[in-house]
Amino acid sequence: MRKLSNTNFYSLKDSEDIFLLHKENTGSIKYKDFICDIVRALEYISKYKEDTITIFIEDAYRFIVITVSGFILKKRVNVLNNNSPKYVESIIGSSMVYISDNYKSALNLDEVFESACNDKWFDILKETIIDENININFYTSGSTGYPKLIEKTLKQFEAEASKIVNQFTDDMKDSIFIYTVPHYHSYGFVFAVLVPYMLELRFLDNRINYLETVNNFYEYEKITIVTTPAFLKRIDRSSLKIRAEWHLFSSTGLLDKKVNDLAKYVFGVDVTEIYGSTEAGAMAYRRRSENDLWTRLSVVSLKTDEHGSIECCSGYTGENVWIYVGDVVNMKNENEFELIGREDSIVKIEGKRISVQQIDRQILMDKHFKDSYTIYCKSDKREYIASFIVLSNRDRNAEHMKKYVIEYLKGYFETVVLPKKIYFVDSIPRTEIGKIDRKALDSIMQGN
């Protein structure tokens, strides 16, 4: 199985084989072009003595080139998950080498990729193999909004990708990879970059934003799409004009049954949901029509404490290293579990224990509601929960629908745990990979 860490890049320098497809399918990048661009980047990055480069590169192909070049030069690579100016400034110090395609970059990437290839770097590539123990670290903020650097090695990420390849080989074999998830998040890096690279399959030079773009790849019989619930919520069957044998991965959040049913209606297959985290990697999967329970990946070991809080150990968390996940589950047997919710989503209201995610699941069972997110709130005087809801019909009277929500939920929950505040919104604020934007929710509450 091919890995970045066992690739002889010099051997590819004259290869006419296609490495990546342009996302509009208007052209391609050959392996020989990829190697020449690595050589260009090596010339520039080698001038920095620092052992770490920090990057945010929107263009996926350039991201891959700069990352691989950093590995070859034995530099740690830290990856930012967004490029908003204040966020970047909060992380990047004056002594750090920051490389980006759009904000305060130490390098002009256009200049790098338009430069001549220095032959000395081809000679160096002859003797160079990437060290699998080199670090590639991803910044994540989760629901806190504060940057946190998750440190992992390339070996760990490649071990995770290898497991995905072994588990789902038959589904992915001979397909091309299209992705909607950012490559600068660990899920995108593993599933949209490392997995197709290992399988020597063609993938795109950048992510797509609209389902219509898939129609450009009409000549391919098998297509794998790496995506998120946030993207799948927006799809429409009329947008898909081509036929193919589809395989869909989804992660970064739970896929509502309605959305899974929509995806199955559009593509004709169940979505393969992946349960995992940046720290722990992929832990389990499920396909809704086969099983509502999650099935652990065979290389993964799971355990829970007396409260049901889950921990994970696998070949890619480190030997005998258990990762605290922060979710509460109900283990049905050694291999399967029901996901109850985030540990911090299970709260007590006046002594009554409730998962706010249970409330959301129940709200979404009603046809009047399109999306929902419920949070726990606490002040000096009281504690309560608040629900943010997207109506299926926005023309309905808000006050009437608030009463309807309460009466509907009374059929399933005790009155004391029902939402004390309900906000009807056009959409639940989420980040680009579908994580809840808690700061935006706080702003909505402060504005009402």
TrEMBL record:
This is AMP-binding enzyme. GO terms for molecular function: acid-thiol ligase activity. Residues 127-292 form the AMP-dependent synthetase/ligase domain. Pfam families: AMP-binding, AMP-binding_C. It comes from the Bacteria. InterPro entries: AMP-bd_C (IPR025110), AMP-bd_C_sf (IPR045851), AMP-dep_synth/lig_dom (IPR000873), ANL_N_sf (IPR042099), ATP-dep_AMP-bd_enzyme (IPR050237). PANTHER family: LONG-CHAIN-FATTY-ACID--COA LIGASE, NONRIBOSOMAL PEPTIDE SYNTHASE PES1 (EUROFUNG)-RELATED. Signal peptide: none annotated. Residues 381-435 form the AMP-binding enzyme C-terminal domain.
